[in-house]
Amino acid sequence: MDEKRSRINCSSVNAIKKIEEAVISSVSSVIDKNIIWDDSEKERVREHFKDIFSTTFHEQIMVDGKAWSAAQEDGDSTQDMEPLDQEKKKYLNEVIYPNLNTQLVETTKLRQHLPYRCAQKHSRKCHFECQYLDKVRVELPVENLMQSEKLNEEDLLSEVLTSASCTRKIIEDLPAAEERASEIITVLMPQVDL
């Protein structure tokens, strides 16, 4: 593989120096947090990392197609912001940021009222569910039990098992219904203050 193609190409010596400083300061702060090493060992590790990182980093960087050493000799001729970047910065400051700020304010206003509206919808739904559950009645097949004298033992056993499964289903659903009712109450209680 071509060595020039495997290198990172950059257009600013200052940008490379800032990247290098940021990495070294981050690693230095991590080294400073180490409680096992004393100050001399921390300084030794910090300098060792700085030397190795700088050397390796500079070997992999090219500035405007030149190696790091040649680019450093020429000096950095790039400005902090090119004219095109100034136009972009102006567009960002005058158009994008105000629009973004407006959208954030609108979204915050909507979120302020949304929980109350959700609670209202949830309350209505729970009210209808409660009305429906009030109307639902468990009916046992009494007429079939009356005819039990005419039924044989197997039919009677199947009827009893059916009734038992219905009763078991009701018993299983009852805690979930109670939990649901308690959730409804907890959701609606904060809304009472509104």
Describe the structure.
- The protein has 194 residues and is mainly alpha-helical.
- The chain folds into three domains: 8-74, no CATH class; 81-136; 137-194, no CATH class.
- 75% of the residues lie in helices and 4% in strands.
- The chain contains six helices and three strands, in the order E-H-H-E-E-H-H-H-H.
- The chain has a three-stranded mixed beta sheet.
- Helix 4 (83-135) crosses helix 6 (153-192).
- The chain is elongated, with a radius of gyration of 38 Å.
- The two termini are 70 Å apart.
- The model has no long low-confidence stretch (mean pLDDT 77).
What is the 3D shape?
A: elongated
Strand content: under 5%
Main sheet overview: 3 strands, mixed
Element order, helices and strands? EHHEEHHHH
> Count the helices. How many?
6
Terminal CA distance? 70 Å
Give a short synopsis of this structure.
By secondary structure, the protein is mainly α. The chain contains six helices and three strands; from the N terminus they run βααββαααα. It has a three-stranded mixed beta sheet.
Task: Give keywords.
single chain, 194 residues, mainly alpha, 3 domains, three-stranded mixed sheet, elongated
What is the fold's blueprint, element by element?
Layout (H helix, E strand, L loop, with lengths): L7 E3 L2 H20 L6 H21 L1 E3 L2 E2 H7 L8 H53 L6 H5 L6 H40 L2
Parallel strand pairs: 1-2
Antiparallel strand pairs: 2-3
